[in-house]
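Module 6 notes. Inverse folding takes a fixed backbone as the condition and produces residue identities as the prediction. Think of it as a translation problem where the source language is geometry and the target language is the twenty amino acids. Below is one complete input and output pair. Work through it position by position during the lab.
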């Protein structure tokens, strides 16, 4: 099986292999001179990003008198995770890792393990007078410091505090409103109404070209798709950025008890609904296997508009410069109301605000480098440093506000405006999301944003307004795993169980939907439950229940 779900399992296996290799490579490796700092980081080559030849890299090198050398990976979560694990296991790892949380990051368990083995160094004593901006950020947002503190009480790495409103509700559905108007249909509000709309998209030629080339519903990777379609039946956290099982995304609660959602009969009903849509040809066959590039190719098809709806966080699948204006055709659909209500998945403050770390310093780094790296981090946390790091050059990539400008949150004073960039040049001058260490709500929502949401300049407002459809639909069955710490020998026991179960549920979900497993078969359902039991499902739930009880 060559799907993303099989690759997720492979990544999980790679994680286990790498973890066993850490002990063998935890002795301090060879290091470079103090003025040469090596960093492992993802780069978006498709948007013109080259971290070695980047305007912000040069700013850092000049300001801190260092030579930065990068070991890079892609923004594809599976390959990025695998390359990071290989880098660590090799023993020839860099001075620091700077990651993107929704691509790949260190889990809390990894941090404690790597710290105990001496592979990464604690940051506690490096935070203080030399890091005034970071210290101020901790004071302004105590949750940031809490998130940075590992279950063992130490700060082994720095997370991304990204108070991203639209990221907080990642499981959205974007539907072609022009097609709805053409067919005389309204946006669906229930699973049955959605089926009716998708059937019309498939059979009634809404793009008017006389061909049956319409794709009623698509996705990339399947995570948002499953969460959006299943939540009307049972609380279903989105399993995005979870290729290594780094979060307990399959867990929920019921009457104060931790539950593995895939063991509930409501979960079977939910996956049955998704399966029926797939069997009727209403879901793109590539929805579970294709990456973002493949989805974008369909969204920007030279043959015309072929996508009826797409389950993704935001409508990045269509370019804004197409002459037919399809960029303006997609609007968010509110959560559907089903047997369980109209719940939406809430990700606890944004995709970036997740336990673990995007920045760590390894034992390859000398004391002088450690101090320099923390100063660089502190600069990126500062207001001016953040603008340059995330967005690029003033006057080229962003500008100061002018009179009459309106902030994204209209109750705030506007502070900056990001300028749209030509295709392939978005990240030539910046580190982009690598630098989102402290994007609190005030910073993010004070940016100047055009009031026309269907222009590139109004994109952030489009996301902001769409997300209001989802706010207030949080499920009572949500399990706040980000508040639950598991430490010591129990954490060691938990790690492989979690990896195996999380990867298995992701894979089995796709197998049920695509017919590899038969969700209508009691035997197949029983086998699935037995598979979960064999992987340690009972112990998985027990560990998190005990940790949750201790925390409450």
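Target side of the pair, the amino acids:
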């Amino acid at each position: 099986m060559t799907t993303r779900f099989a690759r997720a399992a492979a990544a999980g296996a790679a994680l286990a292999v790498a973890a066993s290799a850490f002990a063998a490579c935890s002795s301090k490796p060879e290091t470079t001179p103090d003025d040469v700092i090596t960093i492992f980081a993802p780069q978006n080559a498709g948007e013109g990003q080259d971290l070695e030849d980047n305007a912000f890299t040069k700013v850092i090198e000049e300001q801190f008198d260092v030579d930065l050398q990068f070991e890079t990976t892609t923004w594809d979560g599976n390959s990025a995770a695998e390359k990071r694990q290989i880098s660590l296991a090799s023993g020839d790892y860099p001075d620091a890792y700077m990651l993107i949380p929704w691509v790949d990051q260190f889990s809390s368990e990894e941090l404690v393990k790597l710290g105990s083995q001496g592979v990464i160094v604690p940051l506690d004593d490096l935070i203080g007078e030399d890091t005034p901006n970071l210290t101020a950020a901790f004071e302004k947002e105590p949750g940031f410091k809490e998130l940075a503190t590992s279950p063992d009480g130490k700060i082994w790495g720095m997370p991304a505090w990204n108070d991203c409103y639209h990221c907080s509700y990642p499981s959205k559905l974007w539907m072609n409103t022009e097609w709805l108007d053409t067919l005389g249909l309204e946006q669906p509000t229930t699973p049955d109404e959605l089926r009716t709309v998708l059937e019309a998209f498939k059979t009634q030629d809404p793009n008017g070209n006389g061909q049956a080339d319409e794709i009623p519903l698509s996705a990339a990777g399947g995570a948002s798709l499953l969460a959006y379609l299943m939540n009307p039946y049972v609380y279903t956290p989105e399993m995005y950025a979870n290729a290594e099982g780094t979060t307990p995304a399959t867990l929920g609660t019921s009457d104060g008890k931790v539950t593995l959602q895939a063991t509930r009969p409501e979960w079977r009903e939910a996956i049955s609904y998704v399966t029926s849509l797939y069997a009727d040809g209403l879901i793109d066959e590539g929805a579970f296997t294709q990456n973002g590039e493949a989805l974008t190719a369909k969204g920007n098809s030279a043959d015309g508009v072929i996508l009826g709806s797409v389950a993704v966080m935001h409508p990045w699948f269509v370019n804004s410069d197409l002459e037919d204006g399809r960029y303006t055709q997609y609007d968010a659909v509110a959560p559907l109301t089903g047997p369980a209500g109209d719940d939406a998945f809430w990700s606890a403050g944004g995709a970036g605000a997740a336990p673990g770390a995007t920045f760590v310093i390894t034992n390859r780094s000398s004391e002088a480098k450690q101090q320099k790296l923390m100063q660089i981090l502190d600069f990126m946390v500062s207001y001016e440093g953040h603008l340059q790091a995330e967005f690029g050059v003033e006057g080229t990539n962003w500008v100061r506000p002018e009179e009459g400008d309106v902030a994204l949150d209209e109750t705030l004073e506007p502070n900056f405006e990001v300028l749209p960039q030509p295709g392939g040049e978005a990240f030539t001058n910046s580190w982009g999301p690598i630098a989102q260490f402290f994007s609190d709500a005030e910073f993010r929502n004070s940016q100047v944003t055009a009031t026309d949401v269907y222009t590139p300049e109004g994109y952030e407002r489009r996301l902001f307004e769409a997300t209001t459809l989802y706010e207030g639909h949080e499920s009572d069955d949500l399990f706040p795993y980000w508040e639950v710490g598991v430490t010591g020998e129990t954490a060691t026991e938990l790690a492989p169980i979690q990896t195996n179960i999380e990867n298995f549920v992701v894979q089995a979900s796709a197998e049920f939907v695509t017919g590899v497993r038969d969700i209508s078969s009691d035997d197949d359902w029983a086998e699935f439950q037995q598979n979960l039991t064999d992987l340690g499902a009972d112990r998985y739930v027990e560990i998190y229940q005990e940790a949750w009880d201790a925390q409450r």
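Reference fact for the lab report: Residues 1-26 have pLDDT under 50 and may be disordered.
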